[in-house]
Amino acid sequence: MKNNSNKNNARVKKTKKLLEDSLGILLEEKPFEDIRVIDICAKANMHRSTFYTYYNDKYELLKSKLDEYEEKFLEDLNRYKIENKLKDSHIDIMEKILHYFYLNRKYLKIIFQNNRDGSVTKILREYLASYVIEGIKDFKTIKPEKENVIRVMGSFYSGAFISVLTDWIVNDCFISVEDLAGYISDIIMQRVFSE
């Protein structure tokens, strides 16, 4: 019985991946708004009833892919946990995060463009804020009268980073990962203006 269950799980994963890949191919050809479920099924060479076995609509399929990206992104970010070296390693960490987004830019562009309710950026912003807060706590001792400054910094930096990241992805990664990481670092470290 267990073997039969494994076969079914493998078949479900294969079918879902085929639908996700078909949506990905279509996204290269036309805007998400113009893609219909029937187009996805035709590209995947499967019947619409199979699609509706797993998803209610194309938005749910897109969300499924987003959930996968979120999981991989969080795994990736956890690998580069800040450990008492925020100042020295922040460019490396940013480059790793930006490389992840760059490699997944086609899907992420669609996701950011269709993020009408703000849920995607909210998830990323909250996670990055907690990541920054943890790094700051490890790096510096905050004055007792400024205890809320860490929370404000986490919110400020994560919001700014996600805003820049969204603009960069939506505008086809108009500068290199290294340049973007360098610019962000220069802004944070206040190395932008000549004296």
Could you walk me through the main structural features you see in this protein, from its secondary elements to its overall organization?
The protein is mainly alpha-helical and 195 residues long. The chain has nine helices and no strands. The longest helix has 28 residues, at 2-29. Mean pLDDT is 80; it is low at 82-87.
Q: CA-to-CA gap between the ends?
A: 74 Å
Mean model confidence by pLDDT: 80
Strand content: under 5%
| Main pleated sheet | none
pLDDT < 50 stretches: 82-87
Order of helices and strands: HHHHHHHHH
Oligomeric form = single chain
Shape: elongated
Q: Count of helical segments?
A: 9
Rg, nearest Å: 20 Å
- The percent range for helix content is over 70%
- Assign the structural class, choosing from mainly alpha, mainly beta, alpha/beta, alpha+beta, or little secondary structure: mainly alpha
Q: Please give the number of β-strands.
A: 0
Concise description?
The chain is mainly alpha-helical and 195 residues long. The chain has nine helices and no strands.
Can you lay out the helices and strands and say which pair or pack?
Blueprint: H1 2-29, H2 37-44, H3 48-54, H4 58-79, H5 86-103, H6 105-113, H7 119-139, H8 149-170, H9 177-188
Keywords:
single chain, elongated, mainly alpha, 75% helix, 195 residues
